[in-house]
Amino acid sequence: MITNSATFVVPGDPETRTGGYIYEKQVLLHLRRLGRPVRLLRIAAGFPDPTPQEIRNTAAILAGCDANIPLILDGFLVGAMPAEHFAQIRAPFVAMIHHPLALETGLSAQRAAWLKATETRNLVRAAQVVVPSPRTKQDLISHYGVPGEKITIALPGVPRPAGPQRPQDPPLILSVGTLVPRKGHDVLIKALAQITDLPWHVAIAGARRDAATATALEAQVAQSGLGGRIRFLGEVTEARLSELYRQARIFALATRLEGYGMVFAEALSHGLPIVSCNNTAIPDTVPADAGALVPTDDVAAFAAALRQLLTDHVAYDAAQRAAHQAGALLPQWAQTAGHMAAALDRATAAVAAR
After folding, report:
1. Phi and psi at residue 230, in whole multiples of 5°?
2. Which residues contact 314 (CB under 8 A, 6 or more apart)?
3. Which of 54, 99, 161, 279 could pair covalently with 44 via S-S, beta carbons 3.0-4.6 A apart?
4. For the residues 176-203, what does the mean pLDDT come to?
């Protein structure tokens, strides 16, 4: 008999400071606070690029899971575990898809096609699918054929600011995102090189997950002569990130793809005007009047948007008010976990009805 317990399967370290891991850690904690006895099962850290041995070990672990206890499977597993191994899973599972892996920036055509085929086949077996945004739901319906009634949207929760804003002078422009091509830090640096006549400094917080990209970005900063104005902070603690949000005057991220973009919600909760791109899920999160959303990879437009917020006090104040208003409406993590709990119940009910 299937119970209301569950097992949350996460590759690698759940304490990793990226949006996806923060989301899953908070959902796990709040499911437990809702009275759900959810167990955390950590598996190989290599996903979404596992070694053959990691695949075999993970397949054996998942095949051995109790058929009466539903699983919540991180999207790295759903996208990168060969479908023949997924067929061995006996327990019903909820797929947690932050964004489809096949849509990641910088993939070879062969890799993208393999991920697309694997995700498609594995999502067919999911009892339910949970996503963080309406855009990701639409991507799964349009590109993967997942039935809409099988998908639950669970917007990420947003913690409230730990204290009042303390903006720095000269203005701090904050960018938060792992150093990978998808985050568009190269575009931000090019845009900043066009507004050197203005006072500002920049902090980029994000892990060096892609060493080649991180090295290229550091070289780009040096070649642009901006070494004294742009700092790469690496992965920062939750307390340090909270402090940076409170010190910042503008949030800027030229990202090329987001399944939701938790950092945008965090910026809104601090009342920060945002400069980003009008692609994927970003317009669902960031109101048009809370800053500026420009075309993807448009360096000139990104620079112009930064310039306006740095020089036009009327425009800045209006964007700040809009950001505060939007931030006040964002959900808390208990609501996010409630949506996941409902998806688990639907998954188990569907299996029980067979």
Report:
1. -120, 125
2. none
3. 54
4. 97
Residue 1's pLDDT is: 46
| H/E run at residue 191 | helix 185-192
The domain spans of the chain are 6-155+332-352, 172-328
Amino acid residing at 260: Y
Instruction: Name the helix (H) or strand (E) containing 8.
Output: strand 6-11
Residue with tokens 């393999």: 114
Taking Cα atoms as reference points, which of 125, 92, 56 lies closest to residue 343? 92
**What does DSSP assign to residue 328?**
H
pLDDT in tens, 231-243: 999 999 999 999 9
pLDDT digits (tens, 9 = 90+) for 133-189: 999 999 999 999 999 999 999 999 998 898 899 999 999 999 999 999 999 999 999
Question: Which pLDDT value is given to residue 212?
Answer: 96
How would you class 25 by CB atoms within 10 Å of its CB: exposed for 0-12, middle for 13-18, buried for 19 or more? middle
Nearest to 205 by CA among 171, 253, 169, 246: 253
Fold of the domain spanning 172-328: Rossmann fold (3.40.50)
The C-alpha atoms of residue 322 and residue 221 are separated, in whole angstroms, by: 32
Q: State the average pLDDT over residues 42-69.
A: 95
CATH of domain 6-155+332-352: 3.40.50.2000
Bridge partners of 10, per DSSP, are: 42
**Residue 327 CB coordination number (10 Å):** 20
Separation between Cα atoms, residue 93 and residue 150, nearest integer Å: 12
- Starting at the edge strand found earlier in the chain, the sheet holding 201-205 runs 230-234, 201-205, 172-176, 250-252, 274-277, 291-294
Q: What is the DSSP letter of 12?
A: S
